[in-house]
Amino acid sequence: MSTPPFFILMILPSPTMRFKELLIIGGAVVVGALGPLFVITEGSNMYQAWEAEQFEERAYVSQIADSLGLDRNLVLAVIKVESNFDSHAISYKGAKGLMQLCDGTAREVGVDDAFDPQQNIRGGSAYLAGLLQRFSTLDEALAAYNAGPERLKEYGGVPPFPRTNSFLKDVKRFKKLYAERVDWD
Asked: Residue 3 class from Cβ within 10 Å (0-12 exposed, 13-18 middle, 19+ buried)?
């Protein structure tokens, strides 16, 4: 495993005498108040690409994406946004694993163990491929993946849910980043 791009973590006193974290990642400055960190520049792209390249199931993503005619970067971006590469992730709605499969969807795509990384990637990718065939745009397919296909029918397109709109934006951002920076060879 390679080392991450240059980063430094410093604890500095803030003007209010509370301590703040200052994290420099590949030229980015990330600040938090001893809690969640907030990116204040775009320089963290190098770290995000490095993180994707270290994902141990990346070769399997490539294999499954290629077999289904999917963009590898799209599948990797969905995994990043859905679970942050955590195969044991569980959402507040009970979706599980890397691609956050609900129990019904997992059964539909033949996944017995949603926490098994390869089963989850295979099932989630198959589900995504089906949505891309069913819907006319990437936004609609991703919205259906996130909110459910019935929601698109109900709203006549991408539903106006903040969580779904954030999902669309984030997946497309990571897909673009990975296309530019992840070496698949």
From this structure: exposed
Pairwise CA distance, residues 143 & 1, whole Å: 34
Residue 82 annotated in active site: yes
Q: Residues near 182 by Cβ (< 8 Å), separated by ≥ 6?
A: 49, 52, 53, 73, 76
Which of the following is catalytic: 57, 82, 150, 154?
82
Strand order in the sheet with 7-13: 7-13, 19-25, 28-32, 37-39
Domains, the chain, with CATH or none: 7-43 (no CATH), 49-181 (1.10.530.10)
The residue behind tokens 């397919």 is 141
Q: CA 161 to CA 124: how far, in whole Å?
A: 22
Q: Which two tokens stand for residue 47?
A: 């770290």
pLDDT tens for 81-110 read 999 999 999 999 999 999 999 999 999 999
User: What is the mean predicted confidence (pLDDT) over 6-18?
Assistant: 43
Output the pLDDT for position 185.
80
Least confident of 26-30, 41-45, 113-117, 123-127: 26-30
The Cα 131–Cα 96 span in angstroms is: 19
